[in-house]
TrEMBL record:
Catalysed reaction equations from the record: aldehydo-N-acetyl-D-mannosamine 6-phosphate + phosphoenolpyruvate + H2O = N-acetylneuraminate 9-phosphate + phosphate
One Pfam match: SAF
PANTHER family associated with the record: N-ACETYLNEURAMINATE SYNTHASE, SIALIC ACID SYNTHASE
Native organism: Otus sunia
Keyword terms of this UniProt record: Transferase
Alphabetical list of InterPro entries matching this protein: AFP_Neu5c_C_sf, Aldolase_TIM, PseI-like, PseI/NeuA/B-like_N, SAF, SAF_AFP_Neu5Ac, SAF_PseI/NeuA/NeuB
Single biological process term from Gene Ontology: carbohydrate derivative biosynthetic process
Designated name of the protein: N-acetylneuraminate-9-phosphate synthase
Domain AFP-like stretches: 294-353
Top-rank lineage group of the source organism: Eukaryota
GO molecular function: N-acylneuraminate-9-phosphate synthase activity
EC numbers: 2.5.1.57
Amino acid sequence: MSREFELCPGRRVGGEQPCFIIAEIGQNHQGDLALAKRMIRMAKDCGADCAKFQKSELEYKFNKKALERPYTSKHSWGKTYGEHKRHLEFSHDQYRELKKYAEDIGIFFTASGMDEMAVEFLHELDVPFFKVGSGDTNNFPYLEKTAKKGRPMVISSGMQSMNTMHQVYQIVKPINPNFCFLQCTSAYPLQPEDVNLRVISAYQSAFPDIPIGYSGHETGIAISVAAVAMGAKVVERHVTLNKTWKGSDHQASLEPDELAELVKAIRTVEKAMGSPVKQLLPCEMACNEKLGKSVVAKVSIPEGAVLTLDMLTVKVGEPKGFPPEAIFDLVGQKVKKNIEEDETITEQAVENHVKKVKC
C-alpha cells in the first residue's frame, strides 16, 4: 500500500484516502482574470479538490530567440511566441488575487512552476504543494531546488523513461519524502492506445512507498476512471468552459458537465472498490434466501441409512438445509429419521453432524 502524506492542509493522499482530483485550468483562462475566477468556481462546483494554473517567469523559461520567433498558429495571441505567452501570463498580484478567491470559496489552489523563478514565487505565495510539469521532470537541478523547499510535490512523467523516473525518485526521496508520481503521456488530445495505464502498476511495483496517480490528456472520462480503479491516488485533468475556444489545450480538456461526471464516477468507483475479503454480505441475504440452493434427497432415504453421493442432489429447497458445498461432507453420515424423496436434508436429520466453520 502506498504511503500516505498530507498534500494540502487537512487533506492526505495515498493509502486508503480518496483520490485527490486536480482541475488543471492551466492557461485555458485566455489571459482573462475574471474568466480564471469563473473557472475556479466551476472546479469547486464540480467537486474537484484543487484548481491549478501554470506559472512562468518567461525570461527564465525561454531564451530570447524562443520568445522572438514568429508564432502564426491559429491559437496565437500575438505575432511572436513571447507576445503570445505574455498575453496568457498573470502577474504576481493577479496570482495573489486568484489564490485568495480560491480560499474564499473553499478550494485548494496551486500552479505548476514552469521554471525555477516561478517556483520561488509560488513558494512565496505559499501554495500547498508544487506541481512539476512533465517538461521539468528530467530537469534535475530544478527538481533538487524544488524538493529543498520542503513542500509536497506532484510530479508528472510525460516524455520520460522508467530509468529517468528512477533517477527522479533517487534525487527527490532523500530530500523530500512527500511526493508522488503521475503516469502521463504528453499528447493533446491523447489517443487511447498511447495512454498506457499499465505504467501505473509498474510505478506501484517500482515505487511502493509513494502514491501513484494519473494525469490525462485524453477526451472523455472513461480512462481516468479506469486509472482510479487501478489505484491512482491523484487524478489531474485539464478543464475548460468551452472546447472550441482558441488555445491548444481546450480540445483535450473537460467541460463542466464532464468534470462533474468524472468526480461523480471516481467517487462511485472508490465505493465499489470495497474490501478484498470475499464473504456473504448482508445485502445478499434476500437473494440467498430466495435462490440459494440446499442439499436435497434424490431418493427416499430410510432411517439409519448411511448417505452416499447418489442419494443426494442440489436444488432450491424449502426449508433451507445444508448448503451445496456441504454435500461431500454428508457422504458417510448416518441419518436418524426417514427422509422422503425431494425433501431437504437438514441438520436435524443427520447424526452427530458437525458444521465446518467457513474461513
